C-alpha cells in the first residue's frame, strides 16, 4: 500500500505501523527513527549547555 493512501485513512499511525512492521523496510525505519531521536537529544543538550 502506498504511503499517501495509508496516511489518508482513519487511524493513520496504526496503518503506518502495520505497513512498516510488515515490510522489508522495517529495520531502515527504526534506524532512521533512532538517529532522529539521537539528533534531537543532542541538539537539546547542546542548547542547554549540559
Give the overall form. Answer: elongated
**What's the average pLDDT?**
94
Number of helical elements: 3
Which structural class do you get from the secondary structure elements? Answer: mainly alpha
Strand tally is 0
Parts with pLDDT < 50 across at least 5 consecutive residues: none
Q: Tell me about the biggest sheet?
A: none
User: What is the first-to-last residue Cα distance?
Assistant: 44 Å
Supply Rg. Answer: 15 Å
What is the assembly state of the chains in this entry? single chain
Estimated share of beta-strand residues: under 5%
H and E order:
HHH
Helix content: over 70%
Task: Please give a structural write-up.
The chain is mainly α and 50 residues long. The protein has helices at 3-8, 12-21, 26-48. It is elongated. The chain starts with a helix and ends with a helix. The mean pLDDT is 94.
Amino acid at each position: 500500500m502506498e504511503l499517501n493512501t495509508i496516511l489518508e485513512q482513519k487511524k493513520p499511525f496504526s496503518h503506518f505501523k502495520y505497513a512498516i512492521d510488515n515490510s522489508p523496510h522495517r529495520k531502515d525505519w527504526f534506524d532512521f527513527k533512532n538517529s532522529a531521536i539521537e539528533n534531537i537529544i543532542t541538539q537539546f543538550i547542546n542548547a542547554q549547555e549540559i
